Each structure stands twice: as structure tokens, then as C-alpha cells.
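Supplementary Note 2. Why include the ligand at all?

Several targets in our set were suspected to adopt different conformations when bound, so apo predictions alone were not considered sufficient. For every target with a known small-molecule partner we therefore ran a joint prediction. The input for zinc ion is given below.
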Amino acid sequence: MNAKCAICDAVVVLDQGSFQAKRLRNRQEKMFLCPACCERIEQRTKARHATGQFKLYRNKKKKRQLIK
Ligand SMILES: [Zn+2]
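The joint prediction is reproduced in C-alpha cell form.
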């Protein structure tokens, strides 16, 4: 199975039965990143995180009250 990296357009051949290939097939909205981009992003993100000026904008999950 061929997968194209969303950033650098490199085509990576994935093993048909691998976990990554399965995930891509089942969830098409999932973005594929080649190992080189993945590593680069990881390093840059960690470096930015180390500066202390990096915020993750995650919204807090509200507790849903199921019984009213
Ligand atoms: Zn890439």
C-alpha cells in the first residue's frame, strides 16, 4: 500500500498488514506523515516546548450530566 506524506508529498510504501496501513484504510481522514517529517516535527515541537512559550490549546472536556 502506498501512502503519500501530507507535508512533503513523499510516497512511502506501507506493509499491507501493518497497523499504520490499517488505520489509514479505516480512517481516511487521518493524515499520513512520512517518518522524516514525523521526526522533524517531533524535534521542533519539543524544542519549542522547552522554551516555555508553547501552549496546547486543548479545550477541557465538560462533564456531561446524563441524568437530569
Ligand atoms: Zn514527509
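The mean pLDDT is 85. The longest helix spans residues 35-51. Comparable summaries for the other entries are listed in the accompanying table.
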